[in-house]
Amino acid sequence: MSTVARNNVPPLSPVPMTRDRVRLFSSLATLVVAVAGTMILFSYDPARYGFYPPCFLRAITGLNCPGCGSLRAIHQLLHGHVLEAARLNLLLVVSLPGCAWWGVRCGWLWLSGKAMMFDVRPAWLWVLFVIASVFTVLRNLPAFEWLAP
């Protein structure tokens, strides 16, 4: 005798994963990971704790990449020390308003149900690449060592 006929209850079946459920689940998972990462970065200073990943370019060549000092800078920003964060990675601090705008824009599109597309013009990508490249070269020159973390 089947389960349905014995107790008049259909057997449990998995909830179908619709597009909205997948989107909600992935959004919640991303939020949980972001909050957890922020709490870890707030609580444990990268300058004191060694469990954060090292910069591979710096480990291999001794040169500072455009991201060197970013974890320490974000830690300082989370504690409200903007000048110390700028001393560690000026490019990161200067780029934060643009990143915040991008995040608000993507959030607005998600809330309004519109498709989020990576619609940055190639010219802007080249501008960002040139800025990061110039920043990298300058922070490795002795005259601009104030840009190094």
Fold topology:
Blueprint: H1 3-7, H2 19-43, H3 56-61, H4 70-78, H5 82-88, H6 90-111, H7 122-139
Provide a descriptive summary of the structure in words.
By secondary structure, this protein is mostly helical. Helices cover 62% and strands 0% of the residues. It has helices at residues 3-7, 19-43, 56-61, 70-78, 82-88, 90-111, 122-139. Helix 2 (19-43) crosses helix 4 (70-78). It is elongated and about 80 Å long.
Shape: elongated
Uncertain segments are: none
How many structural domains in the coordinates? 1
Largest sheet: none
- Secondary structure: helix percent: 55-70%
Distance between the termini: 72 Å
Hey, roughly how much beta strand do the residues contain? under 5%
Structural class of the helix and strand makeup? mainly alpha
Number of helices: 7
Overall pLDDT score: 87
Quaternary status:
single chain
Number of strands: 0
Tell me the Rg in angstroms: 23 Å
Order of helices and strands: HHHHHHH
State the main characteristics.
149 residues, mainly alpha
Write a short abstract of this structure.
This protein is mainly alpha-helical and 149 residues long.
